[in-house]
Design goal:
The complex is a heterodimer of chains A (269) and B (481).
Chain A lengths: L7 E12 L2 E12 L3 E5 L6 H9 L6 E7 L10 E3 L5 H7 L1 E3 L12 H8 L8 H6 L2 H20 L15 H13 L5 E5 L7 H18 L2 E5 L3 H7 L2 E6 L2 E6 L1 H6 L1 H8 L3
Helix pairs in contact in A: 3-6
Chain B lengths: L25 H37 L1 E3 L6 E3 L1 H42 L9 H7 L3 H18 L2 H26 L8 H18 L3 H20 L7 H21 L22 H12 L9 H25 L2 H11 L1 H6 L4 H27 L9 H14 L4 H17 L7 H15 L13 E2 L6 E2 L13
Helix pairs in contact in B: 1-2, 5-10, 5-13, 5-14, 5-15, 6-7, 6-8, 6-13, 7-13, 10-13, 11-13, 14-15
Classes of the chains: A alpha/beta (269), B mainly alpha (481).
Amino acid sequence: MTATHSSFIIEARGVTMVFGGLVALDSVDFKVEEDSITALIGPNGAGKTTFFNCLTGIYTPTRGEVMFQAPAKPGGRDRARSLKGLSPDKITSLGVARTFQNIRLFNNLTVLENVLIGCHCRMKAGVFGALFRDKKTRAEERDMADFSYRLLDSYGLGAVVNDLAKNLPYGAQRRLEIVRALATRPALLLLDEPAAGLNIGETRELEDLIRLVRAREKLSILLIEHDMTLVMSVSEKLYVMEYGRVIAEGSPGEIKTNPEVIKAYLGEE
Amino acid sequence: MAPDTIKTPLGPAGPETCSGAGGCPGKSLIAENLTRLCFWARELKASFLAALWLCLLTLPMVVFKINPNDGSIVYRWILLLYVSAGGFILSALWRLMLARRDRVRYKRAEAELGAAESGSGRGPERTWVDVAVNSRYRKPAVGLVLLVVASVPFWGAPYTVNILITALIYITLGLGLNIVVGVSGLLNLGYVAFYAIGAYTYALLNYYFGLGFWLCLPLSALSATVLGLLLGFPVLRLRGDYLAIVTLGFGEIVRLVLTNMAVTRGPRGIGNISPPGFFGLDLNGSVKPVLMEWWPYLDPRLDLNKAFLFFIILGLVTLTIVAVFRLENSRLGRAWLALREDEIACQAMGIDRTRAKLTAFALGATWAGMAGAVFASQVTFINPTSFTFMQSVMILSIVVLGGMGSIPGVIIGAVVLIVLPEYLRVFAEYRMLLFGAAMVLMMVFRPGGLIQSARQIYVYEPARTGPAADRGGEALKGEGR
């Protein structure tokens, strides 16, 4: 592994997104280092979610490039590849998972089934496997159910595996959405405003959860968030966006004192 | 469902509202009874007003009758009494049922909340239907029903056998459509097109090339599957209403093509379609006398070809049930469910939306194709009028009435909609009226269908390494929710 310049896990180079005449993103340069927690903040309408959608393939950037580089296995070589133009499911199977600002669980399915669906891209069985239920398919099903249960259990949802997702309390739904994203076995986890709608206690729990996920799963995390306490305490690097542009980047300490950021958030004197 | 969003029902509360072991203090008991009394007084008043209103509305029609001979008016006040009494009783009954429904929902929500708070997996209260379908008696019950149904040709009338064949065909169709509509959430109003393709594949191959049923059955399935894929491609981007309209158009196009093409002989249709072969034996000629000797209870009028077809379709239905159950609880089935629940989240989970939709369309069509081949050999004559939009509606009704996504639901739906009307010919004139009324009642009282689909329950076995996904075990089928 050549660890000189290639330690990023995802990098956006000059990403521009234009809707009709509206420039939602204006040549955004962005980088998430391997094994880090990076945050993206900015006022409402700054283009944060649009940027997320460009990374995950829901939108294809008008200009610019998104490069993804899964962490190299020991002895292997890093291989960066472009995500531009790939479909969301392809990007997920490469190793980028996400959660949504407004929770998007499969409400009428059980908690375990939600996570099993997350395992989809790591499973192989097709129509014939399903119909004839051969040994391989059965083993796969069993392994995945086992994996899903353990995953849920390790994040404190073991007692509710058979409950319908819609019957969970709000905080547990947030948690389940993160666990479901983890089931796709990502190298990079994108969290879109994970603290939205949570109270102070639940936000504190979320903070612990984010740290736990990072330590346990050895992945990189990128989060969009409005809750400054959470962002400042949990993230190592911050990007600040306004009007579709990155106006500042740096450590939490640098960002707090950056005059551009203060101007964007508090207005000019 | 949070219980505070539900209107607290004050229905004829039983002892459960006053279940404390020490009993309620007398004062509150009186107060409670008073509230209950007030509630019923209000309900009865509303029913009375409804009856009065009905009287006013129907007054000119019911009471006045003009004698055309001398122009005199006959007043029939007694009829008004009947109308008001009928209106009052129906309205009161309706209100009673609604109060009961709300009470059940309230108790369910309460039970669910209690379960969530205590963290135990205790599910909500179950109805007898859920119990019957999901209990440990399920397997023996299914076996018994299958045995009884399979024995029908040995004692039943030819008429009964024929109706059962039709019902079984519709069960196959319902189960196939269930994959598309119930599981994947893609509203398909042109399902009859695949049925028609299956039927015509067999009929045409038989008519022009003399091919037999057994060769044509897989060919019918194949041609319907291919057509399903062909329809799937252009409608990939559509959802909901738009998809419904396009599939509706597709169904009509197929019917019109069949009507106007020379090769299908247009509206004249194709006749003399051969019944399925039985090892080259002439069933009615050589087998029947032997069988009659062995089993004297056999109805002598029974066409053994029909009886054989009955067993074929029964086998096909059994196969379909197993296949659909397996599909639903597989990787592919979960992808379909995810597609139904949330398309964007589904993609974010790494599911190829295009593929999931195409397989749903194609596999749904496969069963229709096979059902079509069986239908062609049942009626021995087909023409395009057998495959109208009404057929699509009928199949869709079976799925919706029975319960979206539920296999037992589809079976019961087919029995209710196909078999019952045959035996209730007395009410034939009111068939559509009853049909509509049944649909309205269903939507109010059981919006999820007769049998709501249950989710698979996974049981954790501490002795083993993980939750046993050991299918078919009775404990694994979910409780109805």
